[in-house]
Design goal:
The complex is a heterodimer of chains A (111) and B (119). With 111 residues, chain A is an all-beta fold. In chain A, 0% of the residues lie in helices and 55% in strands. Chain A has no helices and twelve strands. Chain B has 119 residues and is mainly β. In chain B, strand 4 and strand 5 form a beta hairpin. Classes of the chains: A mainly beta (111), B mainly beta (119).
Chain lengths: 111, 119
């Protein structure tokens, strides 16, 4: 069965600095990987996904993620963090209709 | 992107009553919708898969007689929490995939969630 792990409960960065939110995965076949963001008292919003092709995937709000097969990782990145990026971020892996989410990482960007 | 709505956004009910939560895909059709439950400071747990025109598929450990799911049309799925108890208090989120070439690659669009509080 597939699974994802987000090793950090909390990530703190200063505004303007680069940010990374880590995700590692475990799948038996080809990985279909997703990142979602959840703002306070809101539902999840799709950020980006990796299906195939380029290892660097660009998504919404200036985020990107790098698929690394050898390290089974799919870390979310942004070159310059904004205070408004503060939210809860979920990594997910999909196999058919079965979608598994990581535990989430709370990102706090301080001015 | 596609829009999924949920109603109500918040509901408070007494123990023993039933609560219905609606999930609608506003600008696309969804033959499949998913219901998740999110506990505080925890990730989402898939409860069930709602299928238009057929019975829902429940995840292991989810009581199908307690969490009734009806996929009434291609744009509407409802989750009814029957005989609610305080331990059912949670944040319930639905999602619908906008159909692509394969289910695995579909982008899921999530509703804003429903906060249920059972007194």
């Amino acid at each position: 069965a597939q699974s994802v792990a987000q090793p950090e409960d909390q990530v703190n960065v200063a505004e303007g600095n680069p940010l990374t939110v880590k995700c590692t995965y475990s799948v038996s076949g080809n990985p279909y990987l997703f990142w979602y963001v959840q703002y306070p008292n809101r539902g999840l919003q799709f950020l980006l996904k990796y299906i195939t092709g380029d290892n660097l995937v660009k998504g919404s709000y200036g985020f990107e993620a790098e698929f690394n097969k050898s390290q089974t990782s799919f870390h979310l990145k942004k070159p310059s963090a904004l205070v408004s990026d503060s939210a809860l971020y979920f990594c997910a892996v999909r196999d058919g209709n079965d979608m598994r989410f990581g535990a989430g990482t709370r990102l706090t960007v301080k001015p | 992107g596609a829009v999924v709505s949920q109603h109500p956004s918040r509901v408070i009910c007494k123990s023993g009553t039933s609560v219905k939560i609606e999930c609608r895909s506003l600008d696309f059709q969804a033959t499949t919708m998913f219901w998740y439950r999110q506990f505080p400071k925890q990730s989402l747990m898939l409860m069930a898969t709602s299928n238009e025109g057929s019975k829902a598929t429940y995840e292991q450990g989810v009581e199908k007689d307690k969490f009734l799911i009806n996929h009434a049309s291609l744009t509407l799925s409802t989750l009814t929490v029957t005989s609610a108890h305080p331990e059912d208090s949670s944040f319930y989120i639905c999602s619908a995939p906008q159909a692509g070439t394969r289910p695995s690659t579909d982008t899921q669009y999530f509703g804003p969630g429903t906060r249920l509080t059972v007194l």
